[in-house]
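To whoever is on call:

I kicked off a structure prediction for a single chain this morning and the downstream step that reads the tokens threw a length-mismatch warning. I double-checked the sequence; it's 167 residues and nothing unusual in it as far as I can see. Pasting both halves so you can look.
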Amino acid sequence: SIMKGLLFVLLTLPTWSFAVSRVGGGKVRSLNSGFELNVQSPFMVATLEKESVRCLGPDAITVNNGTLISLNQYFEITEFNNEFENVNSLDKEQLIHRFQDSGWSEQSSSMSCALSMRYEQDGAVAYFITWGKGKGLAIKGTDTSDTVKMIENALKTLQVPTGCEWR
């Protein structure tokens, strides 16, 4: 009936309308790139933006010029091609040159055919993994040991059903 169809659409709309979304239980999924990964405790997928999810962790206590300060720990996960412009047509070697010239360093990845890179600057850390044709994910967050550990743990759970799609 029409009411059942409308109810189905309303219940599933959040999954359809966002590029990267929280599935539940710490699982994050992308309908565009097809990836799925898990965010572990104590970080939680807390908010949902239009193009990304934000994962919040416990506050970190740090010292800045002799003063104790509390620092919010978080990271955001988004689509690779939403974070970086003009990447869809670049092959793996072109991407390596583009990002290494900007200070990014290559990382190992659980997907041997993928390109994984990392960047650090001014208290922030960023990662991306791409497997071709602009598909992939980008993560950016606070550069704390807890955040880096949680990002790297999440990346170890990365699943991509399609595999690499380099041109």
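Update from on-call: the warning came from a stale cache, not from the record. Cleared it. Sanity check on the structure: The chain has one domain: 18-156.
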